[in-house]
Amino acid sequence: MSKEGLEAQKNYPLNKKLREIFWGAWCMQTNWNYERQMNTAYMYGMSHCIDRLYPNPDEIEKKKEAYRRHLEFFNITPQCASLTLGISEAMEEEYAANPDTFDPTVINSVKVALMGPLSGIGDSLFQGTIRIIAMSVGISLAQQGSIAGPILAILISLGTSAPITWYLGKLGYTKGQDFVKQMAASNLMEKVMFVCSIAGLFVIGGMSASLASLTTPLKFGDTLVLQKILDGILPMAIPLAMTWIMYGIIKSGKIKPMWVILGCFVAGIVLNYFGILAC
Amino acid sequence: MLLFQTIIVTLISIMMRLDSRMFGRLNFERPLITCTICGLLLGNLGVGLAVGAEMELATLGMMSIGASGIDMNMGSLVGCAICIMTGADIETALTVAVPMTLLSTLIETLASVVRIQFTHMCDNYVNAGKFDMAKRVDIVYGPLLYVICTAIPVFLSVYFGAGVVQSIANIVPSWVTSGISLGANIIAFYGFAMLLSTMVNKNTVVYFFAGFLVAAYSGLGLTAIALIGIVIAGILYTVKYVGGQSKQSDSVSEDSLNSLEDLDN
Question: Model ipTM?
């Protein structure tokens, strides 16, 4: 068993490894498929490290084994993939150093163990919170005709995604397998979810009050203007009601999204025609 | 001119598709961004921004996790391009976006069958020891398929659709277009509710109402609301998780006070 590959991997500069991990993570959805989801992308992300570890023709069986290991089912929020890629790379090194004592199946079980929690955090952080904040800020400026809106939206997205991906890759690679234990001990997931759900829900509440307008032109005589009465009780009462009607439709789970969307257009045309609702 | 404009829109669509594939989903794919770029390059930034904001609003809540969910990004871009090229109302973008979304869902279903084959190709190349070929399947063939499945329908629908849409837009009465506009606003609430349903529970629903009431009574813009939301989350985090440490520092300051008193004596 030659240690030549291991030497090459150890001597490879850390920053270059982190750059591989970074791009590997961002390219996580290149070949998203229903069978094993992000499996080929994970293999691609790990391939540079595996190629370095097993350079000799007589190690080809080891190399094939490693490639196959990373072709297993995988799914995660792309920005969080750098963490698992980093951990996997550290563990592949460990396995190459101690092929007799280190059980390679652990590499995959760590991946599988992290997949669920990290996707949960990642999706609520990036899709649920950062994207919502970036885009709703962008929309409100764009509605006033300002190009600063889209620019700000991109800056917020890029300014959070890129550093987090890089940092998670570094964290994963330097901490390796120990990270999993530390994560469980420090309640990291619970903390991130706590902050995300407060900031996210606060913004969603603000969105439903201010982003899309719904009013009623209904009036009975000159004295009874429905919208005025509603505004006296609670401003933006119709938007609030509409949010919870839609929530009820989603929770019932009976109507497919495409039908809801088509239904909204039909309802919009009908309600507008009879003067019940307006923008 | 038409061909040139169509090519520009197609190039934007390629960037849009690669965003979630090779750039970790930086939100370049969102209607707000693609429509703005489209407006900028086709020479009508105002319409680009207006359509972008309108379409972003309608689809903001629709999370795209994995392959599920509805992808209106392609429809939004094509709708925006046609709006600018024909000078039609902003509502036209919406009427174009919906059938385009159905089309892209159909194409995506077909492409996903091909991608399963790509995975099997990868398996076979690895077993045969052709590692570079396996890598190429993932990093070249995969994205290429996504690009083809986006660029071709975008090109065709912009090139041939502009004229068709214009002739239809001329005969549609105004109560229909304003009704569609109302419909888009209603769809936005579907999106808000979708987001809400992924995050809310009995204990956290109060934060939704907090955000709603602050915005409804104050009339503050969303930038302010977002910042207030982040600050409140920060405060509550401190109260919940950093509480133990602050008690320690209290006792430290008491000690230092005591020692100060000692000095006085």
Answer: 0.83
